[in-house]
């Protein structure tokens, strides 16, 4: 974080960010694929969910040798897309395809056509379910997978995909589970070449612009937006989630703690809090919390659509 003389941190605005950074080389190709996908499903009268998952990296050099990563394995997004009710999905992910956490050693997989999977026997039945779901998506052409690596790739991709999906108006859900870096080194301040190791390293980072505000206001006004809030301090979780709702004006924040995120979350709206928790029996059966989150969100999304048609949104 760059600290200004007065001790406040510098926040670049989203427009300046997009003007001063370069998207990934695959962005144009990705946009074409998203347009085709969205047009096809929109014409067929289907709803589409955008799922983002995984972590974004922050390069330290323009010719990147080193980067800062975060803990996210992309499990939340991957697992969520497996559940019924999720019909047409544009899924942008960093790292993995598959419902099993990379840190659990479950699978080795490719984001596209996996032809060799090494499956830990503990996960065999789960993997069968995931593969069947994937085959179903493939057969019906209802899943579009897009990848990102850096935070810049992610932000450009998010802006493009949401702009294209805005034609769906309230018939789209945006499920933002990716762990997006909060700090980065702007391209113009980054070392061009590998940083030499002839002493210690002090990093100065800027704050990544808050993209939820332009997303809610300009990119997809009328869309049903669900963001996630991760904290490690339970005392901050609900207040920070509420603050995000107030600041950005979207529909739901799902609050989760790092250590309990797989068994407990709180769905927070402008006027309610709703806890979703796995019971001890469900945990013993390896039930996934997403099997409870997704139906609840789909129900709320339908209510949102009903209200939107009344209010003419
Ligand atoms: O990717 P994962 O399954 O390991 O973890 C999911 C998560 C904690 C990244 C997600 O639930 C989340 O909270 N995403 C938003 C993180 C944030 O506050 O930026």
UniProtKB/TrEMBL annotation:
Q: Name one GO molecular function term.
A: catalytic activity
DNA/pantothenate metabolism flavoprotein C-terminal domain span: 163-271
Give the protein name, as stated in the record.
Answer: 10983_t:CDS:1
Provide the family line. Belongs to the PPC synthetase family.
Tell me the SUPFAM superfamilies matching this sequence: CoaB-like
Q: Name one GO biological process term.
A: coenzyme A biosynthetic process
At the top level, the lineage of the source is: Eukaryota
């Amino acid at each position: 974080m760059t600290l200004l003389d007065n001790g406040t941190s510098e926040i670049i605005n989203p427009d300046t960010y997009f003007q001063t950074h370069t998207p990934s080389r695959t962005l144009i190709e990705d946009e074409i694929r998203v347009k085709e996908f969205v047009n096809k499903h929109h014409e067929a009268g289907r709803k589409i969910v955008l799922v983002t998952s995984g972590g974004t990296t922050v390069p330290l050099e323009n010719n990147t040798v080193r980067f800062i990563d975060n803990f996210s394995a992309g499990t939340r997004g991957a697992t969520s897309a497996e559940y019924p009710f999720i019909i047409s999905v544009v899924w942008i992910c960093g790292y993995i395809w598959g419902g099993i956490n990379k840190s659990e050693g479950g699978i080795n997989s490719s984001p596209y056509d996996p032809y060799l999977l090494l499956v830990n026997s503990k996960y065999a039945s789960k993997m069968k379910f995931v593969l069947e779901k994937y085959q179903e998506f493939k057969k019906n052409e209802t899943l579009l997978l897009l990848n990102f690596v850096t935070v810049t790739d992610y932000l450009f991709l998010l802006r493009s995909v949401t702009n294209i999906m805005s034609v769906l108006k309230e018939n789209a859900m945006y499920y933002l589970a990716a762990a997006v870096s909060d700090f980065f080194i702007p391209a113009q301040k980054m070392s061009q070449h590998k940083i030499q190791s002839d002493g210690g390293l002090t990093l100065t980072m800027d704050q990544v612009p808050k993209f939820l505000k332009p997303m809610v206001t300009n990119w997809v006004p009328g869309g049903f937006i669900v963001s996630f809030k991760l904290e490690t301090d339970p005392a901050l979780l609900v207040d920070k989630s509420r603050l995000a709702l107030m600041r950005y004006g979207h529909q739901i924040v799902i609050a989760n703690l790092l250590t309990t995120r797989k068994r407990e979350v709180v769905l927070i709206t402008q006027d309610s809090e709703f806890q979703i928790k796995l019971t001890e029996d469900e945990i013993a059966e390896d039930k996934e919390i997403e099997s409870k989150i997704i139906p609840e969100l789909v129900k709320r999304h339908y209510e949102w659509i009903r209200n939107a048609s009344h209010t003419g949104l």
